[in-house]
Design a protein that fits this description.
four-stranded antiparallel sheet
Length: 196
C-alpha cells in the first residue's frame, strides 16, 4: 500500500526520501516557504527543519549525513538536515543524487554527466557516460548500480567508471530507477510506464 503525505494544501512536495521505515525527509515548496521537512514516525507527522535551504532532492547515506542538489550545486548535512553546507559546483545541471552510505554516492544529469564519490563528497570523479541526458541513478552496492535517461537509455554501472548499456525496448525518456538488489528493480518512463 502506498501512502502520500502532504504538509499543507498550499505547499507541494518536490521529493520524498525514506532511509528506513521511520526516518524520512522531504522538500516542500510554495510561494511563502522553501523548507526541508523530516519525519521520525514513518511519515505520520513532519517537522520543518530549515526554511533557508532550497534543494530539488536529497539523499541520505545515514540518519544524520545527507546530500542534496539544486541545479548544479551540491550541499551536505551532518546533523540530519537541520543545517546544510555548500559543497561543490559541477559543470552540468544535476538531475539526480543517490547515496548508498555516508561516503559513497552518485550524481547524474545533463550532457550524459555521471559522477561518483567514495569520500563523502570531497571529490567527484565525473565522466560523460553516453550520448544522452541522464535523469535518475540508483545503486545496491559500491560496485553495482544503474542510471537511466533520454530515449530509453539504461546503463548498468559496474565498478565505476565502468558501465554498459542495457536494452530497455522503450524509446521514451526514463525518469526514475530503483533496485532493491542486483536483479529486482523498477524503471519509470516519462509517460508513467513501469518497467521491471
Amino acid at each position: 500500500e502506498s501512502k502520500y503525505y502532504l504538509y499543507s494544501n498550499e505547499n507541494y512536495i518536490s521529493c520524498i526520501y525514506f532511509k528506513n521505515d521511520s526516518i524520512g525527509w522531504s522538500n516542500s515548496v510554495s510561494n511563502e516557504l522553501d523548507a526541508g521537512l523530516k519525519s521520525t514516525d514513518g511519515g505520520e507527522t513532519w517537522s520543518i527543519l530549515n526554511n533557508t535551504h532550497y534543494s530539488q532532492k536529497a539523499s541520505f547515506g545515514s540518519n544524520m549525513i545527507g546530500f542534496s542538489y539544486a541545479l548544479n550545486f551540491i550541499s551536505k548535512t551532518t546533523n540530519g538536515g537541520v543545517s546544510w553546507e555548500g559543497l561543490l559546483f559541477v559543470e552540468n545541471t544535476i538531475k539526480d543524487i543517490f547515496f548508498l552510505t555516508p561516503d559513497y554516492g552518485f550524481i547524474c544529469g545533463e550532457n550524459a554527466m555521471l559522477g561518483q564519490t567514495s569520500d563523502g563528497g570531497v571529490t567527484w570523479p565525473r565522466q560523460s557516460a553516453f550520448y544522452y541526458e541522464l535523469f535518475s541513478v540508483d545503486a545496491v552496492s559500491a560496485s553495482l548500480g544503474w542510471t537511466v535517461g533520454l530515449n530509453g537509455t539504461v546503463l548498468r554501472l559496474t565498478n565505476f567508471p565502468n558501465f554498459y548499456q542495457q536494452q530497455s525496448n522503450v524509446n521514451q525518456s526514463l525518469v526514475a530507477v530503483d533496485f532493491i538488489n542486483g536483479t529486482d528493480g523498477w524503471i519509470v518512463s516519462k509517460t508513467g510506464r513501469i518497467l521491471r
